[in-house]
């Protein structure tokens, strides 16, 4: 069974640079406190690490 990551947008993207906004959008996050579930892959981990100051990441089974 593959591990999953629950990524929640905890802080507004207003005022941050375009690359960070695009990363948030690429993860599927549209509004604050919205959560998405993705497979735990190096690509998703890397995206979450780049915007770690904006999101909360937790592992789910």
Question: Can I get a quick summary?
Answer:
This protein has 2 helices and 3 strands, in the order E-H-E-H-E.
Task: Note the topology.
Layout: E1 4-9, H1 18-26, E2 35-39, H2 42-50, E3 55-60
Antiparallel strand pairs: 1-2, 1-3
Protein model, in words:
The structure is a single chain. This protein has a single domain, classed as Ribosomal Protein L30, Chain: A, CATH 3.30.1390. With 61 residues, the chain is α+β, with helices and mostly antiparallel strands. 30% of the residues lie in helices and 28% in strands.
Features:
globular, 30% helix, 28% strand, Ribosomal Protein L30, Chain: A, 61 residues, alpha+beta
Principal-axis shape: globular
The helix tally amounts to 2
Unreliable runs: none
What is the name of the CATH class? Alpha Beta
**At the third CATH level, what is the topology name?**
Ribosomal Protein L30, Chain: A
Distance between the termini: 8 Å
CATH architecture: 2-Layer Sandwich
Number of domains: 1
Radius of gyration from CA coordinates:
11 Å
Taking the sheet with the most strands, its summary is: 3 strands, antiparallel
Which percent band covers the strand fraction?
Answer: 25-35%
Tell me, rounded to a whole number, the average pLDDT.
96
């Amino acid at each position: 069974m593959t591990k999953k990551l629950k990524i929640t947008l905890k802080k507004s993207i207003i005022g941050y640079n375009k690359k960070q906004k695009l990363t948030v959008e690429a993860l599927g996050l549209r509004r604050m406190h919205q959560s998405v579930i993705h497979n735990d892959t190096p690509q998703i981990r890397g995206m979450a690490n780049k915007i770690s100051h904006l999101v909360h990441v937790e592992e789910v089974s």
